[in-house]
Amino acid sequence: DGGITQSPKYLFRKEGQNVTLSCEQNLNHDAMYWYRQDPGQGLRLIYYSQIVNDFQKGDIAEGYSVSREKKESFPLTVTSAQKNPTAFYLCASSTRQGAIPQPQHFGDGTRLSIL
Amino acid sequence: GENVEQHPSTLSVQEGDSAVIKCTYSDSASNYFPWYKQELGKRPQLIIDIRSNVGEKKDQRIAVTLNKTAKHFSLHITETQPEDSAVYFCAASIPGYSTLTFGKGTMLLVS
Predict the structure, then answer these.
(1) What pLDDT shows up at residue B77?
(2) CA–CA separation, B83 vs B18, rounded Å?
(3) How far is A21 from chain B (nearest CA, A)?
(4) Coil, helix or strand for B23?
(5) What is the pLDDT of residues B33-77, one digit of tens each?
(6) Per-residue H/E/C for chain A
């Protein structure tokens, strides 16, 4: 069954702690994305990667870090520098066709809360 | 960068009525415009998309129209049903970039 798997579904962070959200896809997609969703704010791009071992900052990258060591995996670390991490985090992926934008497909999300 | 405005933020309709959600974009180079539906606590799901070489696209009760001159696009849902109740997001993308810029969403309530 192809798709995007995010884990965990719920995550709690203590003050000063880094936490890592997992995103795995078996769609053979080249591009992967992380979004943050807050009520009434829509989806805001944190980081994206168009190819293995390369990634770019999105609109709200401060306090977050990513890696892309494998095509299938794009983990997001929420660092202690992110002072307001409580949000719903969504991972997405898409194919790449040169300069032509492609549909993005989303995982089920991780809800992060502060303890 | 691209900026997408979406209106209204909330839309209430009676079952069987039509619903229209409108979005405007700022960058005239944008050429891909998807719409996503997100039910409470669930993932956004692509329901329809349109590219700039097309003015209208239809899929059963859902249609999207694009006016490139005015830089706006709209989602039309006919014969609304209670299961259409959800938050709908529009987005835009510029060629050469794989990223999407999203509107802030419209909560559609069908009663």
Answers:
(1) 98
(2) 14
(3) 16
(4) strand
(5) 999 999 998 999 999 999 998 899 999 999 999 999 999 999 999
(6) CCCEEEECCEEEECCCCCEEEEEEECCCCCEEEEEEEECCCEEEEEEEEEECCEEEECCCCCCEEECCCECCECCEEECCCCCCCCEEEEEEEECCECCECCCCEECCCEEEEEC
Whether pLDDT at B24 is above 80: yes
Task: Provide the token pair at B20.
Answer: 């229209």
A75 in contact with B at a CB cutoff of 8 Å? no
Check CB contact under 8 Å for B102 and A43.
yes
Tell me if residue B98 falls in helix, strand or coil: coil
Q: For chain A, say whether B15 makes contact (Cβ under 8 Å).
A: no
Distance from CA of B75 to the nearest CA of A (A): 17
Q: Is the Cβ of B49 closer than 8 Å to some Cβ of chain A?
A: yes
Q: Which of B98, B101, B104, B107 to mutate to test the interface with A (most CBs of A within 10 A)?
A: B98
Q: What is the mean pLDDT of residues A65-92?
A: 96
Q: Which residue of A has its CA nearest to B87?
A: A42
User: How large a percentage of chain A has pLDDT more than 90?
Assistant: 80
